Amino acid sequence: MKRTLALICVACLALALLAGCGANGSSSASGSDKVVKIGVFEPASGDNGAGGKQETLGIQYANSVSPTVDINGTTYDVKLETVDNESSNDKAATAASTLVSAGVSAVLGSYGSSVSIAGGPTFEAANIPVIGVTCTNPQVTQGNSYYYRICFLDPFQGTVLANYAYNTLGVKKAYCLSKLGDDYSNGLVNYFVDAFQKLGGQCVTDTFPDGNSDFTSYVANAKSQGCDVFFSPVSTEAAQLIVDQVVAQGAKFPILAGDTWDSNVILQAAKGKDVNISVTTFYPEGANAEFDSGFKTWVNADATRLSSNGGDDTVSATSAMGYDAYFTALAALKNAGSTDSAAVMAALPNTTYDGVSGHIAFDENGDAIRDTAYVKHANTETGAWEALPSVTVG
User: Fold this and answer.
1) Residue in 317, 266, 270 with CA at minimum distance from that of residue 291
2) pTM of the prediction?
């Protein structure tokens, strides 16, 4: 379906060019305006603000490395148009509309599947393609001709986590906690439960409401139910509170989470404490020395960047993915041979890029063709992640 729509877009683009005008994008048909705009649709506040800032840093670093792009023989300056979607489904459409009004040729984001899903229709109506960076819920691209992404999906991540819990940690009963109304955490918990039960494990599921800041009863429930592991793939804001409660109640079960917990915010919350945390993620620090070194130097050169990265120069997987998403967008612009958003959308199905996180290509749904995840374990003495062997599922 996406390939068919892409061919239709190409035909429409040809007619538009003959008429001497383009739909979106900041250049005129004459090419006199040598600026192309890429939208950054990310949270800088709210529950997912910490992760959104780190994802944005990866995009901004990539822009500093390659601030121009050659399109059909013309060099364009690449300008990032950034909005804060506030981690809010209710604010997503307004934030997306701001990028549409800015005349972007493509959009990157968002950290957080729910806000990606909520903002999507606005981009669809404007015929602007979006490249998701770490939004892993299947609904992000289902039935959406305009949404692509470079990350693995939650059915895969949930299976990896379930197998890690059952086979590596050797646990048989899991407490699974998600946030009400959150597509990401609810979806990932469901995929984990399905895979874990098929392996022979038992699950106790629970949810907490938006705005909750007290996880005392949830940790106590996990203990009273005799659970062997606490699985809660929620925001970093909630994660810190969960870590504190597990420590406060002296719970000895390991904590397991998905990619949202891959943050130095979690490392800082766990450092020096008797707690066992493992997470799945897209990229382990150390996998690409050149990228890691360059990113650290760039972050340390500016106090605002350092603050946005959680106060130190830890390389988050979301930053690596943001970096790759930016260069994927540049590759699509080159393939399109135009800054017109319809042309970029038509070029995306056949766009590939070899990034720091691996080879990027899209399937017929616009999802990344990826079969590998990484598991990280928090070293509470050093305050750093220890990368475990990668996990591949065919």
Assistant:
1) 317
2) 0.88
